[in-house]
């Protein structure tokens, strides 16, 4: 798709990978509604980006990415402000091996609600123009990662959900090109959860060891690389729709291209 002049929503855009998504989109002259549950930091990030890329290019709105009403109002605000909506990104997720219900609720719930509302607003079956939806899953969704079985399973469900919705049976109805981005361990605030024994659970010591190794070898994924992958997937959306773009090193690999008809 052509990104110059396109309109996007990034839910969870105030920090880390989401912030990198916003910057990468703005670099390509895409307009961005940066949505986040944290008002103060969201506004700060949006203002910093506005001073760099233009005040008409980016704006902030408070949004809980697991709340259907918030997601709908956020998408509609972007459409109303700029007269169109092309790209919907939801980046929300948690890791808490001590609370499986909440992990499933948030990680899978945010994916299902985002797809539901995106289809409602952009779906060809609802009179919309189609568009693109991107969800952040995790490399743990497709690579073996026994350290965090509940988190990994929730993210695998996100990948499989998107893959299912991109089957021709569904795509022929809604016309929205959907994909997931699956980074490996990325240097953001999210990894601080490793210090919380309750949230990591029985693999706490092993997790600490892995992070120590990452630090010693500086083998983190950088948020900028994830932003670069987003742009690559958007610019090649016809070919990459339905795939999970996995970033376990600087070079991505793509999994699960849906084929055929049932
Ligand atoms: N950092 C990693 O190693 C890594 C790797 C793969 C996938 N992920 C996924 O990326 C996401 C975390 O992003 P990050 O690593 O950039 O962390 P981060 O903490 O730097 O940023 C997360 C952002 O999401 C916002 N947010 C959290 N809950 C929200 C909600 N309910 N509604 C709206 N906004 C909300 C936060 O306020 C924050 O701005 C999760 O989905 C996680 O599973 C992270
Ligand atoms: C064990 C570390 C716990 C803290 C890290 C916090 C969050 C990370 C979440 C990511 O979504 C996990 C992503 C990928 C893990 C999958 C494969 C890892 C492959 C091993 C490696 O990259 O070294």
UniProtKB/TrEMBL annotation:
Name the top EC class. oxidoreductase
Instruction: Alphabetically list the UniProt keywords.
Output: Oxidoreductase
What this protein catalyses is: resolvin D2 + NAD(+) = 7-oxoresolvin D2 + NADH + H(+); (15S)-hydroxy-(5Z,8Z,11Z,13E)-eicosatetraenoate + NAD(+) = 15-oxo-(5Z,8Z,11Z,13E)-eicosatetraenoate + NADH + H(+); prostaglandin A1 + NAD(+) = 15-oxo-prostaglandin A1 + NADH + H(+); 15-oxo-(5S,6R)-dihydroxy-(7E,9E,11Z)-eicosatrienoate + NADH + H(+) = (5S,6R,15S)-trihydroxy-(7E,9E,11Z)-eicosatrienoate + NAD(+)
Gene3D superfamilies attached to this UniProt entry: NAD(P)-binding Rossmann-like Domain (3.40.50.720)
Q: Which GO terms describe its molecular function?
A: 15-hydroxyicosatetraenoate dehydrogenase activity; 15-hydroxyprostaglandin dehydrogenase (NAD+) activity
Q: What is the annotated role of this protein in its UniProt record?
A: Catalyzes the NAD-dependent dehydrogenation (oxidation) of a broad array of hydroxylated polyunsaturated fatty acids (mainly eicosanoids and docosanoids, including prostaglandins, lipoxins and resolvins), yielding their corresponding keto (oxo) metabolites. Decreases the levels of the pro-proliferative prostaglandins such as prostaglandin E2 (whose activity is increased in cancer because of an increase in the expression of cyclooxygenase 2) and generates oxo-fatty acid products that can profoundly influence cell function by abrogating pro-inflammatory cytokine expression.
Write down the InterPro entries for this protein, in alphabetical order.
NAD(P)-bd_dom_sf (IPR036291), Sc_DH/Rdtase_CS (IPR020904), SDR_fam (IPR002347)
Q: What is this protein called?
A: 15-hydroxyprostaglandin dehydrogenase [NAD(+)]
Family, per entry: Belongs to the short-chain dehydrogenases/reductases (SDR) family.
Superkingdom of the source species: Eukaryota
Q: A Pfam family matched by this chain, by name? A: adh_short
**Enzyme Commission no:** 1.1.1.141, 1.1.1.232
Query: Can you tell me which residues the record assigns to a coiled coil?
Result: none
- Lineage, highest ranks first: Eukaryota, Metazoa, Spiralia, Lophotrochozoa, Annelida
Q: Which GO terms describe its cellular component?
A: cytoplasm
């Amino acid at each position: 798709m052509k990104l110059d002049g396109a309109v996007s929503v990034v839910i969870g855009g105030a920090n880390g990978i989401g912030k990198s998504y916003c910057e990468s989109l703005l670099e390509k002259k895409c307009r961005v509604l940066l949505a986040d549950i944290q008002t103060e930091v969201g506004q700060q990030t949006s203002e910093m980006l506005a001073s760099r890329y233009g005040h008409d290019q980016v704006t902030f709105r408070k949004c809980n990415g697991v709340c259907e009403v918030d997601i709908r109002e956020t998408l509609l605000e972007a459409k109303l402000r700029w007269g169109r909506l092309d790209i919907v990104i939801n980046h929300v997720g948690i890791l808490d091996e001590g609370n499986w219900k909440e992990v499933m609720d948030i990680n899978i719930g945010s994916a299902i609600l985002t797809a539901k509302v995106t289809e409602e607003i952009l779906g060809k079956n609802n009179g919309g123009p189609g568009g693109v939806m991107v969800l952040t899953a995790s490399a743990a969704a497709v690579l073996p990662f026994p350290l965090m079985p509940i988190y990994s399973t929730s993210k695998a469900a996100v990948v499989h959900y998107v893959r299912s919705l991109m089957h021709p049976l569904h795509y022929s109805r809604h016309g929205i090109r959907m994909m997931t981005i699956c980074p490996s361990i990325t240097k953001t605030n999210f990894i601080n959860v490793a210090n919380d024994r309750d949230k990591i659970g029985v693999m706490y010591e092993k997790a600490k060891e892995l992070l120590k190794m990452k630090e010693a070898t500086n083998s983190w994924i950088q948020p900028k690389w994830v932003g670069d992958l987003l742009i690559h997937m958007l610019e090649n959306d016809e070919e990459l729709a339905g795939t999970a773009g996995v970033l376990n090193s600087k070079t991505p690999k793509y999994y699960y291209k849906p084929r055929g008809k049932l």
